Amino acid sequence: MTKEQVTTTLLTEKKEQGKKITMLTAYDYPTAKLIDEAEIDIILVGDSLGMVVLGYEDTLQVTVEDMIHHAQAVTRAASRSLVVVDMPFMSYKISQIAKTVENAGRIIKESRAQAVKVEGGQEVVAEIKAIIKAGIPVMGHLGLTPQAINQLGGFKVQGKEEEAARELIEDAKALEAAGVFAIVLECIPSEVAQRITAEVKVPTIGIGAGKDCDGQVLVNQDLLGIYDKFTPKFVRKYANLNQEISAALKKFKEDVEQGDFPSPEESF
Ligand code: KIV
Predict the structure, then answer these.
(1) Does the Cβ of 217 fall within 6 Å of ligand 1?
(2) 229 and 126: one domain?
(3) Ligand 1 mutation pick, 27, 42, 47, 185, max ligand atoms within 8 A of CB
(4) How far apart, in whole angstroms, are the C-alpha atoms of residue 95 and residue 77?
(5) Which residues of 23-61 are buried (b: 16+ CB within 10 A; e: fewer)?
(6) If exposure means fewest CB atoms within 10 Å of the residue's CB, which of 18, 101, 104, 255 is most exposed?
(7) 174 and 268, same structural domain?
(8) Phi and psi at residue 86, to the nearest 5°
C-alpha cells in the first residue's frame, strides 16, 4: 500500500486533531530518502544549506540556483513527505514583486517541490500574497530569521520583551491572513510560541521555541551530530556521526597503508 502523501491540508488537520508535526532539513538524495522513509511530515530544503553543506559563515550567499540544485535531489527521493524550499536572501523582499513570484515559480517548476518558505512578518505580506496568487503554497518564518542576521546583531533569542512578543503575535496573524499554510517559529521564548500557537489556526513549527508549538523542526546535520562548528542550545543530538565518520576514514587510511585493504575477498 502506498503511503499517504503529506499535503498542506493534512498539516492543518493534524493541528486540529492535536497531532504533532515533524520537519527536518535535507539537501541531498540519500538523506531525503531516509527522512521520507522515516515518515517525517515535511522535508525542508533550508538555506541552512549555505552553512552546513557549503561551508559559508551564514545563509546570505545562497542563490536560487543553489536551492533548485539541492531541492531537485531531495524531490527525487521524497515520495511521501511534503517538500518545502527556502527562498534565499534577496530572491524576495526586493522592490519588484514580479521578480519574487518569478523566483518562487522557478524553484517550484525546476525542483518539483510543493511549497516555498520565506522569512519575515508584516513587511513580507504583499509578496506572500502574490506568490500564493500564483498557486504556490507558502510557509512563513518568524523570530530569529537568519537572513536578517546583520540587522538582528547575531544568532540571539527574539521576542523576549513584551512589546517584541506582541509584535511577533501581530506578525503571525498577518502571515495567517496572507494565507501561509504554516509558520516556523525560531528561537523565541516558549510562552510566546505558546501564545502564537493558540492565536493562529495555521500550524506553528518550532525550533528553539519550546514544546507547545504544533510541530518541531531541526537541521538534520545538527540532529545527527555532523555539523560541529556550533551547536545551539535547542539541538538534541540523536547521533554523533562526526566521530563515527572520522573514525571510519582514519581506519580506511590505516588499512590501505598497512596493506589490509583490499583483501583477497575484496579483489577479482
Ligand atoms: O534554513 C533552515 O534550515 C531553516 C530551519 C532552521 C527552520 O530555516
Answers:
(1) yes
(2) yes
(3) 47
(4) 35
(5) bbbbbbbebbbebbeeebbbbbbbbbbbbbbeeeebbbe
(6) 18
(7) no
(8) -70, 135
How far, in Å, from the CA of 113 to the mean position of ligand 1? 16
d(CA 60, CA 142): 17
Whose alpha carbon is nearest atom 4 of ligand 1?
46
Do 113 and 212 share a domain, yes or no?
A: yes
Q: Is the distance from the beta carbon of residue 223 to the nearest atom of ligand 1 less than 6 Å? A: no
Is 1 among the domain residues?
Answer: no
Instruction: Tell whether the torsion through CA atoms of 146, 149, 155 and 158 is positive or negative.
Output: negative
Per residue of the chain (268 residues), give pLDDT as tens. 557 899 999 999 999 999 999 999 999 999 999 999 999 999 999 999 999 999 999 999 999 999 999 999 999 999 999 999 999 999 999 999 999 999 999 999 999 999 999 999 999 999 999 999 999 999 999 999 999 999 998 889 999 999 999 999 999 999 999 999 999 999 999 999 999 999 999 999 999 999 999 999 999 999 999 998 888 999 999 999 999 999 999 999 999 999 999 999 999 9
Number of domains in the chain: 2
pTM of the model: 0.97
Do 103 and 164 lie in one domain? The reply is: yes
The answer to whether residues 124 and 51 belong to one domain is: yes
Ligand 1 atom having least distance to the Cα of 47: 1
